[in-house]
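Entry 14. Ran structure prediction on the chain below.
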Amino acid sequence: MRYQPRGRLRWLSYQVNTRLDQRQNAPDARWVRYVPAPPPTDTSFLQWTLLHRQDLFLFRYATRGDQTFSFQYQLTQRVPLSGLQRQQSRQYTSRSRYVVSSKVGLEWGITYLMKESLAPLQAELNYAHRGWDTGPQVAYQPSGRWRTTAGLTYRDKVAFTPQPLRLRGWRLPLEQRWSWKAGAFVGVRLEPSLYRAAAPLPPLLAYDLLEGLQIGRNLFASLTVNFPLNRFLELNLMYEGRFTAQAPVHSARMQARANF
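Output, structure tokens:
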């Protein structure tokens, strides 16, 4: 749903999106189901996700800048063999954008997130935390083909379950993107970061708060290549690397998309 006033309030607009996804793998109906075998895996059961988002835009179509306030609620529930698993999060976001010139733009973002994971039969999956992410970003785009962005983000998180603790850190995202024709681009992202915590984090909570990184110095690097093969088919290649005090983690993905 979208609301766009006219007249004196034309600088104001409001948008609401709600989506419900449900997935359930059908049982195996082949003859092998009559052969003695281990029980089905956790992915054989029902899981669904509810996503609700509200956006309030101020001066959305202004040439000099705009302001956006957003609220997002997400609820995910799975029922595997190991028991109910439920995750919910509430996120409040403020984004301020200002255009300095035709080539330079500034942005300041503030995000407050509350997240909780509940699994009554698996205590190691229970955690709850809340906290802030805030920082500026500058973008330089001399042409329609070349774009450079740099930012600085401060993170302050407080966990309540399974134990009270506090995490603080900084991230310095740097991104370069070059496009040579419509739908074809190469993107490179480097993001050094530094995180500090007074006590060791439980594994699952650490992965959620640090996004796969570790306490201390980290470096996240990614390379994305996207180009159309023909009018209806395009190919996407992506590499991601996480470099920490432990052994680095590398991942790569190739995806072909058909557009009709």
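The first helix runs from residue 203 to 210. Will compare against last week's run tomorrow.
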